Amino acid sequence: MEDLTKILKEAVKDHTEYLRKFILAFKNDRKELEIRLGRIVSKEDGNRMKLDTVAPVVFKNIPAEYRFESAVDLADFNSLKRLLSSFKSETKNDVVIINEDGRETYENGELKKVEKKTRSEKLDIYIPGKKYDVRLVLNEEKEVFKRASKKKAIMKRTRRRETYFIEPYGFDFTEAILSGEREEKRKFEVEVEVFSSEKLVSSDFVSLIYNFNVDSLV
């Protein structure tokens, strides 16, 4: 009975504690931290995952039959952007070539940088009551060299990106045309990047994860 009493008196850990640990790793390691809006969808039919839950579900690894699709609908892309229209912003047009050596970024036809991006950790969060789920990513970027690779391109991304700045965040709205070997498609992507680990407040960031979204009508 004493053992049971100890168990019952222990503090209950909720998912926000795990998110704070994730954020703490970013603050300690000075890596790149991003929120990406999208949907956890079935690999078979492309439909969004449906869970009978009233609280967010945090996946360290989503089930094998699902994938995270990082994109939003055009109408939502524009409505979220309007929320930030009064803040300082910048617009950039570039082309990103992805191959085995890394990511080559070109502006006006000139090679600007070549990076290798290593994903060190991720969490996928199913959010009931919202139209989009969230992928939380901890990356490490390394600029490797300043010359173009001779390796064959896997993907070409032609991008127009508008970034709105609210310290310590950058809200990226990217219209991208993806060109691969077989098809070309347009995507609208919304990401939030943390620029300053020193000025990041964990509770504000957790709130942003759940509230920078679109209410579901279903």
From TrEMBL:
<dbReference type="InterPro" id="IPR033469">
    <property type="entry name" value="CYTH-like_dom_sf"/>
</dbReference>
<protein>
    <recommendedName>
        <fullName>mRNA-capping enzyme subunit beta</fullName>
        <ecNumber>3.6.1.74</ecNumber>
    </recommendedName>
</protein>
<dbReference type="GO" id="GO:0140818">
    <property type="term" value="F:mRNA 5'-triphosphate monophosphatase activity"/>
</dbReference>
<keyword id="KW-0378">Hydrolase</keyword>
<feature type="domain" description="mRNA triphosphatase Cet1-like">
    <location>
        <begin position="30"/>
        <end position="94"/>
    </location>
</feature>
<comment type="subunit">
    <text>Heterodimer. The mRNA-capping enzyme is composed of two separate chains alpha and beta, respectively a mRNA guanylyltransferase and an mRNA 5'-triphosphate monophosphatase.</text>
</comment>
<dbReference type="GO" id="GO:0006370">
    <property type="term" value="P:7-methylguanosine mRNA capping"/>
</dbReference>
<keyword id="KW-0539">Nucleus</keyword>
<comment type="similarity">
    <text>Belongs to the fungal TPase family.</text>
</comment>
<dbReference type="GO" id="GO:0031533">
    <property type="term" value="C:mRNA capping enzyme complex"/>
</dbReference>
<dbReference type="InterPro" id="IPR040343">
    <property type="entry name" value="Cet1/Ctl1"/>
</dbReference>
<dbReference type="GO" id="GO:0004651">
    <property type="term" value="F:polynucleotide 5'-phosphatase activity"/>
</dbReference>
<keyword id="KW-0506">mRNA capping</keyword>
<comment type="function">
    <text>First step of mRNA capping. Converts the 5'-triphosphate end of a nascent mRNA chain into a diphosphate end.</text>
</comment>
<dbReference type="InterPro" id="IPR004206">
    <property type="entry name" value="mRNA_triPase_Cet1"/>
</dbReference>
<dbReference type="InterPro" id="IPR037009">
    <property type="entry name" value="mRNA_triPase_Cet1_sf"/>
</dbReference>
<dbReference type="Pfam" id="PF02940">
    <property type="entry name" value="mRNA_triPase"/>
</dbReference>
<keyword id="KW-0507">mRNA processing</keyword>
<feature type="domain" description="mRNA triphosphatase Cet1-like">
    <location>
        <begin position="100"/>
        <end position="194"/>
    </location>
</feature>
